[in-house]
Amino acid sequence: MTVCLTGLGTYVPDRVVTGEAVAAESGIPVDVVTEKMGVREKHVCPPDDDHATDMCVAAAEEALADADVDPGSLDLVLYHGSEYKDYVVWSAAANVADRLGAEHAYATESYTLCAGAPVALRQVRAQLETGDVDSALLVAASREEDLVDYGDEDASFMFNFGSGASAYVLERNAGDRARATVRESAAVTDGSFAADVVMPAGGSRNPPSERTIGEGLHALTVTSDDMKDRMADVSGPNFLSVADDALERSGLAREDLDFAAVTHMKRSFHEWLVGELGLGDDGHHYLDEYGHVQSVDQALALREGLAAGTVADGDVVLFLAAGTGYTWSATVLEWRD
How far is CA 162 from CA 12, 18, 41, 219, 301, in A? Predict the structure, then answer.
């Protein structure tokens, strides 16, 4: 029995913000934004359009068509995107399932922030393996660019946030319709970073009020002075640890790896990471035309690899991600297209 990825879909809004515009708004030099931060441009949502569920539906329709799957035959719809969505305390998954016509699926949600794609694939693969479901749609979206204050120097590592959505169809024993086989996964969490990146207001500790709005507390910020230094010691080793563990559990090693779809990060760290994994220029895609789109990054990088012909039949693909909290995650796929 194999768990197969049979459909892939992505969506990004039409509106584009350039690195030059980010530099002008933040006061950071253009070359720092475009080269060091790695943002030539990114897609962002208009204020009253392209909400999380809208983007998920668009990506899902593409993925379902790619898989040649009727939404009415789905057993599960899983949302693993941003918690910042159309409404708070609300199921985006249920809304997406209804709008697609997935009337026989149950809808649920999974949050691992920017580490969400490998974890969601891991979770649903296990369900498919046990026979709990036969087919599943995984959707994610983010427009967390709305939560970025470009005047907050402490939050500068979030200036790369962009918007978009992804969708995957997973099925058991899909035969010739399989685009990839989903293999093993790994993840690790360092909870000492859990409170370092927060939106100060809006939750139960500091409910929204006229005061919190007036004080600008509804934007993401970094709450500690030493997060960057502490992260420098652990992020690289944790990325490589989950990558190696996922590969080893799949009966593979770094030398078997052909392509890595990696969370957007500053350019120098990305280049170091893919170098450590032994990947050449055609073994990865740097998302400097998208920025960081939460757990959508892996689908965007994979899509670009497919378009460029750097992901082909027989290739071993690694989804590699990290998200505040702080969790590092990886999932291996064997491309069969």
Answer: 9, 11, 9, 15, 14
> What does the pLDDT profile of the chain (337 residues) look like in tens digits?
899 999 999 999 999 999 999 999 999 999 999 999 999 999 999 988 999 999 999 999 999 999 999 999 999 999 999 999 999 999 999 999 999 999 999 999 999 999 999 999 999 999 999 999 999 999 999 999 999 999 998 889 899 999 999 999 999 999 999 999 999 999 999 999 999 999 999 999 999 999 999 999 999 999 998 998 999 999 999 999 999 999 999 999 999 999 999 999 999 999 999 999 999 999 999 999 999 999 999 999 999 999 999 999 999 999 999 999 999 999 999 999 7
The domain that holds 313 is classified in CATH as: 3.40.47.10
The pTM assigned to this predicted structure is 0.97
Please check whether residues 20 and 166 belong to one and the same domain: yes
CB 43 within 8 A of CB 12: yes
H or E stretch covering 119: helix 116-130
Which domain does 304 fall in, by range?
181-335
Co-location of 22 and 114 in the same domain: yes
Whole-angstrom distance, CA of residue 18 vs CA of residue 24 = 10
